[in-house]
Amino acid sequence: MFRQATARLLSRSAAASPKARPFSTDLESAPAADQAFVDAWKKVAPNMDPPKTPLSFMKPRPPTPSSIPSKLIVNFSLPYASELSGKEVDMVIVPATTGQMGILPGHVPTIAELKPGLMTVHEGNDVQKYFVSSGFALVHANSFADIIAVEAVPVDRIDPTLVQKGLAEFTQKLNSASTELEKAEAQIGLDVHSALSSALSG
Amino acid sequence: MSSTAAVPFWRAAGMTYISYSNICANLVRNCLKEPHKSEAISREKVHFSLSKWVDGKPEKPNCHVYKLSCF
């Protein structure tokens, strides 16, 4: 009964091992317009351009190059603003939950959860410093990095006196917290404020 | 929770990722220098009016101001 099962399993693993599931960056970009629709539109309204779909406004990303490119392309988005859009930089260091993570051109594709901390963007000798509250960093195989955060501010906009005040407040709250939820909230406050103060000092 | 894998402390306390990240963002906003602080806080405000319907007619609407982090 299981005679063929092993064979099938083996052939499957053999087929899967040389090339795992392709990344989205390896796939061809979808055509922006449906040709049949464009033809039908031209017949009905020859003087008007066919309506554009969101897809036609999106620039397709280049395929994964065979050699490691010299620059990393960063998109850094917030809910209300696009801080960096398609910017070519040398390196980005993001505060991942597993520790500070440096992203260089040709980095392996990764998704990293961010914790409150300092994010630096290196471009030659120029270093931009942001404080991110939390978010995700998505690194693609073609040296594109998409970083999303709920709130991010340049470090020089942080008020050190408010950070010290918050640090003291949440240390006291953590000691007086009774329920599990209050304790977690105080712990988050402590984490954010200690990350803020270390970002200011470092 | 179905998973027995290690979870962050805020998840163990029953918080969701949305509420965790909103709390973090709010704390960061509160630590900004003045012109930026009020700007960032006002950006997060949501206004809406709520009115109950009684006998097929809406009652007097009352206006609410919510901060996004309340959710």
Automatic annotation (TrEMBL), chain A:
One GO molecular-function entry: proton-transporting ATP synthase activity, rotational mechanism
InterPro entries, per database record: ATP_synth_F1_dsu/esu (IPR001469), ATP_synth_F1_dsu/esu_N (IPR020546), ATPsynth_dsu/esu_N (IPR036771)
UniProt KW Metal-binding keyword: no
Primary site of residence: mitochondrion
The ATP synthase F1 complex delta/epsilon subunit N-terminal domain, residue ranges: 79-143
Subcellular location: Mitochondrion inner membrane
A Pfam family: ATP-synt_DE_N
Keyword DNA-binding belongs to the record: no
Superkingdom to which the source organism belongs: Eukaryota
Gene Ontology CC entries for this record: mitochondrial inner membrane; proton-transporting ATP synthase complex
CDD domains named among the record's database cross-references: F1-ATPase_delta
Gene3D superfamilies: ATP synthase delta/epsilon subunit, C-terminal domain, F0F1 ATP synthase delta/epsilon subunit, N-terminal
UniProt entry keywords in alphabetical sequence: ATP synthesis, CF(1), Hydrogen ion transport, Ion transport, Membrane, Mitochondrion, Mitochondrion inner membrane, Transit peptide, Transport
Listed PANTHER family: ATP SYNTHASE DELTA/EPSILON CHAIN, ATP SYNTHASE SUBUNIT DELTA, MITOCHONDRIAL
Family to which this protein belongs: Belongs to the ATPase epsilon chain family.
UniProt cross-references to NCBIfam families, sorted A to Z: ATP_synt_epsi (TIGR01216)
Oligomer and partners: F-type ATPases have 2 components, CF(1) - the catalytic core - and CF(0) - the membrane proton channel. CF(1) has five subunits: alpha(3), beta(3), gamma(1), delta(1), epsilon(1). CF(0) has three main subunits: a, b and c.
Annotated function: Mitochondrial membrane ATP synthase (F(1)F(0) ATP synthase or Complex V) produces ATP from ADP in the presence of a proton gradient across the membrane which is generated by electron transport complexes of the respiratory chain. F-type ATPases consist of two structural domains, F(1) - containing the extramembraneous catalytic core, and F(0) - containing the membrane proton channel, linked together by a central stalk and a peripheral stalk. During catalysis, ATP turnover in the catalytic domain of F(1) is coupled via a rotary mechanism of the central stalk subunits to proton translocation.
UniProt name for this protein: ATP synthase subunit delta', mitochondrial
Source species of the chain: Escallonia herrerae
From TrEMBL, chain B:
Gene3D superfamilies listed in its UniProt record: ATP synthase, F1 complex, epsilon subunit superfamily, mitochondrial
InterPro entries in the record: ATP_synth_F1_esu_mt, ATP_synth_F1_esu_sf_mt
A single Gene Ontology CC term: proton-transporting ATP synthase complex
Pfam families linked to this entry: ATP-synt_Eps (PF04627)
Main localisation: mitochondrion
Protein's cellular compartments: Mitochondrion inner membrane
Entry keyword annotation includes Mitochondrion: yes
Alphabetic keyword roster: ATP synthesis, CF(1), Hydrogen ion transport, Ion transport, Membrane, Mitochondrion, Mitochondrion inner membrane, Transport
Molecular function GO labels: proton-transporting ATP synthase activity, rotational mechanism
One BP term from GO: proton motive force-driven mitochondrial ATP synthesis
Subunit and partners: F-type ATPases have 2 components, CF(1) - the catalytic core - and CF(0) - the membrane proton channel. CF(1) has five subunits: alpha(3), beta(3), gamma(1), delta(1), epsilon(1). CF(0) has three main subunits: a, b and c.
Free-text function comment from the UniProt entry: Mitochondrial membrane ATP synthase (F(1)F(0) ATP synthase or Complex V) produces ATP from ADP in the presence of a proton gradient across the membrane which is generated by electron transport complexes of the respiratory chain. F-type ATPases consist of two structural domains, F(1) - containing the extramembraneous catalytic core, and F(0) - containing the membrane proton channel, linked together by a central stalk and a peripheral stalk. During catalysis, ATP synthesis in the catalytic domain of F(1) is coupled via a rotary mechanism of the central stalk subunits to proton translocation.
Protein family (similarity comment): Belongs to the eukaryotic ATPase epsilon family.
Protein name: ATP synthase subunit epsilon, mitochondrial
Origin species: Escallonia herrerae
